[in-house]
Amino acid sequence: MEKLKNYIYGEWVEGNGNGIPLYNAVNGEQVAISDTEGLNFEQALDYGRTVGYKNLSSMTFYDRGEMLKKVALYLLERKKKYYDLSYKTGATHVDSWVDIEGGFGTFFTYSGLAKRMLPNTPFWVDGDTQKISANGTFLGTHILTPSEGVSVQINAYNFPVWGMLEKLSTSLLAGVPSIVKPSPFGSYLTNAVFQDMIESGILPEGAVQLVCGEPGNILDYVQDGDSVLFTGSATTGRKLKSLPSIAGNAVRFNMEADSLNCSILGLDAKPGTPEFDLFIKEVRNEMTTKAGQKCTAIRRIIVPENLIGDVQNALSKALDQTKIGNPLSRETRMGSLVGKQQYDEVLRKVNLLKAETELVYDGKHELVDANYENGAFMSPKLFLNDAPFTKNISHDVEAFGPVSTLMPYKDAEEAAALAKRGKGSLVGSIVSHDNNFVAETSWKMASQHGRIFVLNRDSAKESTGHGSPLPTLMHGGPGRAGGGEEMGGLNGLHFFLQKTAIQGSPDILTAITKVYQQGAEKKFSDKHPFQKYFEEVEVGDSLETAGRTVTDADIVNFSNVSWDHFYAHTDATSLTGTIFDKTVAHGYFILSAAAGLFVSGKKGPVIANYGLENCSFFKPVYAGDTITVYLTAKEKINRGVKGRNIPSGVVKWLVEVVNQRDEIVCVATILTLVAKQSPFIDLNLKNIQKALSGLTESTQPSWGKMSPQQMIEHLDHTVLVSLGEPEAEKCFTPEEQLEKWQDSLYNHRKMPKDFPAPFLEEDEKLLDLRHKNLEAAKQSFMDNLKRFVIYYKENPEAEHMNFVFGKLNKEMWELIHKKHFTHHFEQFGLI
């Protein structure tokens, strides 16, 4: 039987012990052996701290985000084999989708957050700058850097893929190397995904390691700066937290433990209401998804005392309709537990519950294409605790399977009190259409819950469900749930980052943070900042504008245009007792006038106004005052661009408006989208003529078999096609792929050197020369290029067919010509 290999210190290493046999949860056949005997864990941790930390921490947050996306795409292409393995863990197709593609989705989410919100630097400026001196020459702020250590991540058996990727999404994005230790059960699935992550070559050396099997003494070697993330039982988690190596060192510890989560049916949600039906469906789903093996599953069903019978009957019928058996069968809606060992443990907990509460539903025991002897199947079990304030077993014992307990309550006060008797939960849900009931219950139970999920007819269609942790929201909970926090959007990175206060002068803080600080030196130049591409803009680039004297007519006209007739702008007789001496200019007029002063009217790289932040008005501006603006590049944010958008970044500009007395009257931060420099030649006739001057009959291509004249005539033909001379008869790209191909015209990726044009069936089609020599071909090409420019000025709405990209408009033809010309000019070394 194959042993699962471990991946440590950059090598695939097999344990040298007997290992743990791993079985198919459905039919009992052995799948693999996990073994960590003989591994050098001390060396593995040291390798992560040195090689892994150096490689990961030197990357920028933006680049790490791009890395997550590439890994997720690579794994997504190979998902079928993961599903084939997931079925062996007892998971149905839906269960597997949550685990596998849910895991990939977490990587995608964090990649998107990074590319929208994190800097293109290895550090992250956190929060606003604090002015800590009277004159602003001494400032303070905070930066976040990767914690200098390795993260040991111990995962549970219920989600072999999501469990790993959910933790890695934040640690890798933070720049901290990780050692993944999945539960042995189901680790063959984790191992398969991990192998592909390494095979992709996307992750830097030392970024991740994998230990498949018993953890051995790995935690004996953690030290200051390291972190441990644990998902599993609260009992085990507390033992790990108290280990001398963890408790005695500055080791960060995060625990996400199983919890006795509840769902409350509102007093208003009687049979016949949408909420009653939603409640039954939600509880049924949470009891049967992953066969109840979810840390977020509903264990306690809290119901108005007069509805206990109705809920019991409706839920029993719903569970009766849930067919149990082989996950590969289309009929199956619930699979098995992950193994016989887990089955025995759940059965032990079921017997504990039986000692104090009544088993009122034990399910149908027929299986689809499976049997109880070989597989780890268990029917859903529903208990009734008729006195939940005196019988405590339901609030203390969790059977980690398809097991839940009904319990009655009288009012919102009791419902919240029962919810809190779980002593700390990952999630509690309320199903009700009564806003007052929901609000009162939520406030009272919130202190003992990491998440509160409210479901009713208004949100049902788009709801993600009680049991689904989301990357953008915190996953964790107080008390029994472990007291930890995972994910939660960018907050999830803070666990892995060191926060450091930085103090100094405005120039020093600007140099350290790469964010311009008010009072730092400005850099003036003859070139207007709005005429610079994203790559050319430097933090501190500044512009001082001419002055503008505000007039009474300005104030009146702005009132009429904006319809802002607030008395301070229009009625001089109503100013007694106000802060104004006379009618004052609108704040938004000052901002608009400032924009009029600092914008560049000439077309340039600035694409659009992207937003406005932190706008403050400090002094009134009256008619007769003269304002001047200082515009300074404050911060640059790289930006991932999709679809038909011009590759660009966001530049934040500090706008300081001063009056004739050099007093600051307004400060704001405006955001602009600024185009990135295109790597392609512009359709400037002089530039193209100049490039072609270096092309002779003897010029040799760097790749391909074209002669110089063949290349020029090939480009000339493409220009003619863009004029409809001749009109291309068809597009060879399949319709379903056309949008993707057209979108690709907008990015800055160059054409591949070996791109086979689908309309060229054989090389000879390129060989029919139309001109007597190269010079004549060049002249024809330039003449037709001039015609192209004139044609689309006269016919801006014209569209013509392209063989590969379909029907293209003026903008698209310009983009394709830029890419195409660059491709062949580089082929012959002309640019």
UniProtKB/TrEMBL annotation:
Residues 12-499 form the Aldehyde dehydrogenase domain. One of its GO terms (molecular function) is hydrolase activity. It comes from the Bacteria. Keywords: Hydrolase, Oxidoreductase. Residues 460-484 are annotated as: Disordered. Residues 539-639 form the MaoC-like domain. Transmembrane segments: none annotated. NCBIfam families: PaaN-DH, PRK11903.1. PANTHER family: ALDEHYDE DEHYDROGENASE B-RELATED (PTHR43111). This is Oxepin-CoA hydrolase / 3-oxo-5,6-dehydrosuberyl-CoA semialdehyde dehydrogenase.
